[in-house]
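Q: Two folds, back to back.
A: First:
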Amino acid sequence: MVDRLVNSEANARRIQMVESCFGSSGEQLLIPGRVLVGEGVLTKMCRKRPKPRQFFLFNDILVYGNIVIGKKKYNKQHIIPLEEVQLQGLEDTPHTRNGWLIRTTAKSFAVYAATSTEKQEWMAHINKCIEDLLRKSGKKRSDQHAAVWVPDSEANVCMCCKKTQFTMIIRRHHCRNCGAVVCGPCSPKKFLLPSSTKPQRVCLDCYDGLSSLNNQQNKTNANSAQLKATNSADDSDGSDGDEEEQDANKTHDEPKFYGDATEKTSSDDK
């Protein structure tokens, strides 16, 4: 399906077109073995409000950016390696429909398609690309993902203390571990999370839980090291026995997906 497009001229032209739309602010996308699988507009749930974003699905990465001029110019390019991605469907609500979560180690967010059919197509194609990529690389799915931030509009009061009301002066903050909207006094501390290289702001509830878990792990490691030292001392005393090793919602064009079995070869040249 996708493999037949790897060295095709049609695929190269499509990727070069995407590069030109991002201009000099974007990264080079045309590399050997990369295929543009599909493209289309999705509504991304941002911190302030939902916003339309142009998405491009490749066989190894997911790219999206702000729409400056539809089909002509995009900016603020974001590139997500597919090996980090995990999808999770969302139930429809009176205000949001046809949505799912895109979870990654660095950032997680919700997106929404215009129709249920588009949602199914996007999720099916993304999951297929992830499965093929992991199978070929021999890598395992990532089990560490960043929290999805609660939109500012859904929290008028702090989600931690339930008392502080947000105003123009009292700012909202997001816990980087659980994604909750919290006030300053409820998020004064930072913690080194698996998805970051430096300590991040977390709420007091998460800080206490993470600290407790970290202390337990340190204690377990210390006990393991002490046991190993004791066993080594016993062996050095000449005790009998063998040594054992230690185990360590706006109108827009429908998305296009390339390389489907039903697609005619002639369509590649259009």
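A: Second:
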Amino acid sequence: MDGISDVAVGVKRGSDELNGASNGSDSKKLRVEEAPPSRVLHIRKLPNEASETEVIALGLPFGKVTNILTLKGKNQAFLEMGTEEAAITMVNYYTTVTPHIRNVPVFIQYSNHKELKTDAGNQRTQAVLQAVSAVQSGGSPSSDVQEALAAASSPVLRIIIDNMFYPVTLDVLQQIFSKFGTVMKIITFTKNNQFQALLQFSDPVNAQQAKLALDGQNIYNSCCTLRIDFSKLVNLNVKYNNDKSRDYTRPELPAGDGQPSLDPSVAAALTKDSNSLLGKIPGALNPLSAAAAAAAAAGRVALAGQAGSSGVLLVSNLNEEMVTPQSLFTLFGVYGDVQRVKILYNKKDSALIQMSDANQAQLAMSHLNGQKMYGKIIRVTLSKHQTVALPRDGLDDQGLTKDYANSPLHRFKKPGSKNFQNIFPPSATLHLSNIPQDVTEDDLRLLFSNAGGTVKAFKFFQDRKMALIQMSTVEEAIQALIDLHNYNMGGNQHLRVSFSKSTI
């Protein structure tokens, strides 16, 4: 590595660097203001005890790291990224967020070198790089390499929330974890009927600190317990910025099919109520800031008498000419197991729907509030009722109340069922399954256009037991799902219909 000068000239210059405080002379620095982008980055002002793995960890969130050279005596290092694009993303990110290693700010800029030619005999470096790339591509590194990797534990934490009485939003997680360092990305999902999240810090050290401090803590009093361990992933790939996932380094990402994240003006409006919200949920990790409280409020935290334990929803602005307990059972059944439905006798544009638990009620509310059903935009809120009462024996309520507790159509009866992983917001594209072998594309197109919509596109999966069908609007898809989920296709095979996250 001969010929690398102490000072690789870069893009960003803090004023402190121009006063002769760092290596090299002022004149040399000021003479050349910028090195053009390169996949080799020059990192300066490293703390004495910084390890190679910690330097590599700075680059990992942005892509593959292909080489590293540390200049111990000079507190500097050169890091080679797999592509120039990854290096540019990294430099751009760290111009807005100062990178730290062991709580010491370090400086990153492009190097004058286009690649690093290091001595291949440097086995330790190779071992670390090999370990990192093995984990990045999902493999398991060998034991000597695991040791090297243990030093650079992943910047990504896997978080499971036990005992989840209140909804925990992505914003609440960001709020809590950002006390320990820069949170770059978060992905939330439900697996094995448990709410989980993957959260990536800019530095593995922050992930270690957060895990030490927060593992086993409750977000709210005596509930929402955090269980935290390190993820095998070292970099999260976030495609959408919405209420399920967020990449804070790329605000330009689309919202995808999820709800877009909470608009700051909405958050501000909600903060007016947030104090009472916080007052009612004193908790171990409080005080959450007003913004996080607003986010929780936007998640419509249940604050009924037994806060959060009610699984009953109040649905209003229904089309009273068209709506039936069965149509509400089918639509709300996409998001949980509906136990009872009661259309209100004196107010037939409103109904109470009892889900099997508060989480399902929350899920149905967040996905269906504001959707169009039979031409009207429905409102879905949490009810103050704990249960839906059945009519007294012998009393005819004109079929307005139905008990579905033993329905064979519940989607979420089996713990760990695939259905838990396939819950998506209403969309124009529907996923069909359980299609009999002899049913053709034309049969299905006809069936769905008879439901009163226009079929825009259709695609069979390879085995022809499943298909995607795209209607022209979300409202038409909602209508088709209500009409055709569990439709008898003959031979006692019933069609299964759900919303898809894909488009055709």
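Q: And?
A: DSSP finds 13 helices and 23 strands in the chain.
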